[in-house]
Write a structure and sequence with these properties.
heterodimer, A: mainly alpha, 7 helices, 71% helix, 0% strand, globular, B: mainly alpha, 3 domains, two-stranded antiparallel ribbon, 19 helices, 1% strand
Chain lengths: 224, 487
C-alpha cells in the first residue's frame, strides 16, 4: 500500500472548494469529516507507510494517526451533526453572497495561496511535496473566510475547523512531525472547543432562534 | 515528586474533587483551600526560581525569573478572587440559587482555569504553551457562561470563537518558528524548548522568524486584548460572574502578554538585536490606548468601563515593553492586576447593593455603600494614574524610559491618551459619588470579609507607590533580564 502525498493534498484543496460551494450544513460537516480523514492519512504518506513496519517511531505515528482519525473524522463531526439537529438550522441562512460567488471566492483564495507560495516563499526542499504549503495556506484562508463571512454559527465553527486543518497541513510541512504531547494536546483542545461551541449554538437557538450569536450589543447588565 | 509538578497537579486534583463534591458551600470552601495550598507551593518555589531556573519532567517544565514573577501575580489575584467568590456566591449558596450543578461547574472550571494558567507560565515547550493557552480559553469560556442565560451564552460564544481563531494563528506562528529552529538545531537540542530556542536563535533565518512572530503577535495579542483584536473582551468581562471578571482582567491578559514577550528574545536573537520585534509592539500599544479612550467615553456599564480600562493598561504594558522600559512594564503589570482586581470586587458589591451596573442609575456612592464606594473611587484613582499610587510610578517610569530611548512622539501620544482616559473614566465615577442617593435605597453595611479584600490591596498599591521593597526591585530586575530590552 502506498499513499501519494500530492494526491492527498489535492484532495484537501478539493474539499475546501466543495465546502465553499454548498449551502447545506450537513454536507459541509461531512466534507469536514473527510478532510479530517485525509489529514490523518497525511503523515503516513509523507513518511511512507514503511514507518508502520518498523523503527522506534511506530507507536508515535500510530497514536497520532489514530487520534486524528478518531477526533477529526468521527467525534467532532458527530457533535456538529447533533448541534445541527438540535438547533434546527440545516442550511446557510441567506448567504451573504450567492453560492457561485462563494465558490469563486474560494477558488481565488486557492489561487492566491499558490501565488504566495511560489513568489514569496523559498522553494520546497527536494523530496517533499511542493503542494504542502499552498494546500495548507488555501485551507487556512478558506477557513478564515467561512469564519468571518459565515451567516450561521455552525458555518463559523466549520470555518474554525477548516482553518485549524490548514494550520496542521502547514505544520506538517515545516516540522515533519510534532511532539506527541503537543499533537494530542492540540487535538483535545480543538475537540473540547468544538463541543463547547456546539452546546452554545444549540442553547442559543433554543432560547431565541433569530437573535442567537449575531453579536448584538448586550444590554447594561444587572446585579452580576 | 518535584514541587513544580505539584504546582500543576494540586489544582488538577482540586478540579476533580470540585466536580463531585455534593454541597455548593463545600465547593466554595474548597476554592479557597485549594488556592491557599497552590499559593503556598508557589511561595516556596518562587524565591529559588528567581535565583536560578527550576526544571521538571526532563526540561519540559521550567520556572525562571520571568515566569516566577508572573506566577506570583497570578497567585495573589487568584487567592483574593477565591475568597471573594466565597463572599460573592455565599448568600446564593445558602438560599439555593447557586445550586449543586452550577457550583460544580464553577469549581471545576475555576481550578481548570488556574491549572491552565500555571501551565502557560511553567511550560518550557512552546507547543505545550499553546495547548495551555487554548485551555485557558476553554475553562474561562465555561466560567463566562456560568449563568447560562442569553447574554452570557452570547458573550461566551463570541469569546470562544474569536480567541480560538486568534490562537489558531498563534499555533501557525509556533509551527513556523519551530520549523525554522528545526533547520538549525543539532544533537540533543530541541526546536520546541525555550532554553534551546534562545541558544540557536542567532543561527535562524531572520525572514522566517519575523513571519512567525507576526502570527504569534496577532494570535496571542487577540487573547491579551490588544486593539484591534480586543472585540471579545468587554462582553466576556461584563457577563462573567465578578470573581471571574477579576481573574480574567487581572491575570489572564497578563498570561497572554507573557506568551508574546517570551518570544521577544528569540526574535531579537534571530534578527540581530535591532529591536524589530519590540518596535512592533509600540503601535499595538498606542492603538489600544486610543481605542480604550474612545469607548470609555461612551460607556455606562461599570464592568464594561473596567474592561475597556484593561485594554488601555494592556496597551500601556505592551508600549512599555516596546519603548525599552522592560522593568517598568513588568512593574505596571503588577500594579494593574492589583488595582483592577479591587475595582472589580467593588463593582461586584455595588451591583449587588444597587441591583444595577449602570453608572447613571447609581448615586450617593459614598453614602449608600461606603466601603465598596470608597474602594471603587480609590481603585479608579489608582487606575487613571493618580499619585501616590504605584500605577502612577510605573507609568512615569515607562515615559522616562521612552524619552531616554529617543521615542518622544510615542511618549507624547501615550501621555495624551492617558490624559484623555483620566477625564473620561473619572467623569462617570465622580458623577456616581456626587449624585444624590436614589430615593428609597437604604445604606448597605459591608461584611467583615469585604474589609481585607478591598483595603489590603489598596494599601499595598499606596505603599508600592511610595516605597519599592528591595526584594521586589530584585525580582523585577531578574525578570526583565530574561526578556532583555529594546535597544
Amino acid at each position: 500500500m502506498s499513499l501519494n502525498a500530492d494526491l492527498l493534498l489535492l484532495l484537501v484543496i478539493g474539499i475546501d472548494l466543495f465546502i465553499g460551494s454548498t449551502g447545506r450544513l450537513g454536507a459541509r460537516i461531512r466534507a469536514c469529516a473527510l478532510q479530517g480523514l485525509v489529514l490523518a492519512a497525511l503523515p503516513l504518506a509523507i513518511q511512507g507507510t514503511g514507518v508502520l513496519t518498523g523503527g522506534e517511531r511506530v507507536l508515535h505515528t500510530v497514536l497520532a494517526v489514530l487520534a486524528t482519525l478518531l477526533l477529526k473524522a468521527v467525534a467532532i463531526p458527530y457533535f456538529l451533526m447533533r448541534a445541527m439537529r438540535q438547533s434546527g438550522v440545516q442550511r446557510e441562512a441567506e448567504p451573504e453572497h450567492s453560492l457561485h460567488l462563494s465558490l469563486l471566492l474560494c477558488a481565488v483564495l486557492v489561487g492566491l495561496s499558490f501565488w504566495i507560495s511560489a513568489v514569496m516563499l523559498p522553494p520546497p526542499e527536494a523530496g517533499s511535496s511542493p503542494l504542502g504549503v499552498p494546500a495548507g495556506l488555501a485551507t487556512l484562508l478558506v477557513g478564515l473566510y467561512l469564519t468571518v463571512g459565515g451567516r450561521t454559527e455552525l458555518t463559523q465553527v466549520i470555518g474554525y475547523l477548516v482553518l485549524e486543518n490548514g494550520v496542521f497541513v502547514i505544520g506538517q510541512r515545516v516540522l515533519g512531525e510534532f511532539p506527541l504531547v503537543v499533537e494530542l494536546g492540540v487535538l483535545l483542545d480543538v475537540l473540547v472547543a468544538v463541543m463547547l461551541m456546539a452546546v452554545l449554538v444549540a442553547f442559543g437557538h433554543r432560547q431565541d432562534p433569530s437573535a442567537a450569536g449575531n453579536g448584538a450589543a448586550t444590554p447594561v447588565g444587572g446585579a452580576r | 515528586m518535584s514541587l513544580l509538578l505539584a504546582l500543576l497537579l494540586v489544582p488538577v486534583g482540586c478540579m476533580l474533587v470540585a466536580a463531585v463534591l455534593p454541597s455548593p458551600r463545600a465547593i466554595l470552601a474548597l476554592c479557597v483551600a485549594g488556592a491557599v495550598a497552590v499559593a503556598g507551593i508557589a511561595a516556596v518555589l518562587i524565591p529559588s526560581a528567581l535565583e536560578a531556573p527550576v526544571f521538571a519532567i526532563g526540561r519540559q517544565l521550567m520556572l525562571d525569573a520571568l515566569s516566577a514573577y508572573n506566577l506570583a501575580i497570578v497567585m495573589f489575584v487568584f487567592l483574593f478572587s477565591s475568597v471573594y467568590a466565597l463572599r460573592y456566591f455565599g448568600p446564593a449558596a445558602r438560599d439555593g440559587s447557586f445550586g449543586r450543578g452550577k457550583a460544580r461547574r464553577f469549581g471545576a472550571s475555576w481550578f481548570g482555569f488556574l491549572a491552565s494558567m500555571i501551565l502557560v507560565l511553567v511550560s518550557n515547550n512552546v507547543g505545550l504553551l499553546w495547548v495551555a493557552m487554548e485551555t485557558t480559553t476553554l475553562a474561562s469560556a465555561l466560567l463566562v457562561c456560568l449563568e447560562f442565560d442569553q447574554p452570557s451564552v452570547r458573550a461566551s460564544w463570541t469569546y470562544l470563537m474569536i480567541c480560538s481563531v486568534g490562537i489558531a494563528l498563534a499555533l501557525l506562528g509556533t509551527f513556523l518558528l519551530c520549523g525554522e529552529a528545526r533547520n538549525v538545531t543539532t544533537g540533543s537540542e530541541s526546536p520546541f524548548l525555550w532554553t534551546d530556542l534562545s541558544h540557536v536563535a542567532s543561527r535562524m533565518r531572520p525572514g522566517g522568524v519575523k513571519l512567525a512572530f507576526l502570527f504569534l503577535l496577532v494570535g496571542y495579542g487577540t487573547k491579551a486584548g490588544l486593539a484591534p483584536m480586543h472585540t471579545w473582551l468587554p462582553d466576556a468581562h461584563s457577563q462573567a460572574p465578578t470573581p471571574v471578571s477579576a481573574v480574567l482582567s487581572g491575570v489572564l491578559l497578563n498570561c497572554a502578554l507573557y506568551s508574546i514577550s517570551r518570544f521577544l528574545p528569540v526574535v531579537e536573537g534571530a534578527t540581530g538585536g535591532d529591536g524589530w520585534a519590540f518596535r512592533l509592539l509600540v503601535p499595538f500599544g498606542l492603538v489600544s490606548i486610543v481605542v480604550a479612550a474612545a469607548f470609555i467615553a461612551h460607556e455606562h456599564d461599570l464592568k464594561r468601563l473596567l474592561a475597556y480600562c484593561s485594554v488601555e493598561h494592556i496597551g500601556i504594558i505592551a508600549l512599555g515593553l516596546g519603548l525599552g522600559g522592560t522593568t517598568a512594564a513588568l512593574f505596571h503589570t503588577l500594579n494593574h492586576s492589583i488595582s483592577k482586581m479591587v475595582a472589580f470586587f467593588c463593582v461586584g458589591n455595588l451591583a449587588r447593593d444597587h441591583g444595577t451596573r449602570d453608572t447613571r442609575a447609581i448615586g450617593g456612592l459614598l453614602k449608600t455603600s461606603r466601603l465598596a464606594g470608597a474602594g471603587l473611587l480609590v481603585a479608579i484613582f489608582a487606575l487613571v494614574g493618580m499619585p501616590p499610587s504605584s500605577v502612577f510610578m510605573s507609568e512615569l517610569w515607562i515615559a522616562r524610559d521612552g524619552i531616554a530611548g529617543g521615542h518622544l512622539p510615542a511618549v507624547v501620544a501615550f501621555l495624551l491618551g492617558v490624559g484623555v482616559i483620566f477625564i473620561v473614566l473619572l467623569r462617570p465615577i465622580l458623577g456616581m459619588a456626587w449624585a444624590p442617593a436614589i430615593a428609597g435605597r437604604a445604606t448597605v453595611r459591608a461584611r467583615a470579609l469585604d474589609w481585607p479584600l478591598i483595603v489590603l490591596p489598596l494599601v499595598l498599591l499606596g505603599v508600592l507607590g511610595l516605597w519599592m521593597p528591595e526584594g521586589l526591585q530584585d525580582a523585577l530586575t531578574r525578570a526583565a533580564a530574561v526578556l532583555g530590552g529594546a535597544p
